[in-house]
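Try this one yourself first.
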């Protein structure tokens, strides 16, 4: 799984986008970005993304990973897939 495999759709925040992938191991990764000032920790114009890792059962990790590049998102996806 890599960043380019994610399927993005419109986010509830106008002008923002989101993608979520759940792995066979039950872990999931949510990736979002929005326009400047949207309150999200990823900016579409800067090609950065806010990443949330979600444990099996929907329990979210405590902190999001802010302003991740597509290469960093791919690394996170690979790590979560290997858990």
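Now uncover the answer:
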């Amino acid at each position: 799984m890599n960043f380019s495999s994610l399927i993005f759709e419109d986010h509830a925040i106008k002008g923002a986008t989101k993608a979520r992938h759940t792995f066979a191991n039950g872990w999931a990764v949510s990736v979002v970005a929005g326009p400047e000032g949207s309150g999200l920790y990823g900016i579409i114009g800067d090609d950065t993304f806010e990443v949330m890792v979600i444990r099996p059962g929907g329990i979210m990790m405590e902190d999001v990973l802010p302003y991740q590049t597509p290469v960093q998102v791919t690394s996170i996806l690979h790590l979560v897939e290997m858990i």
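Discussion: Residues 3-82 form one domain. Residues 29 and 52 are 6 Å apart (CA to CA).
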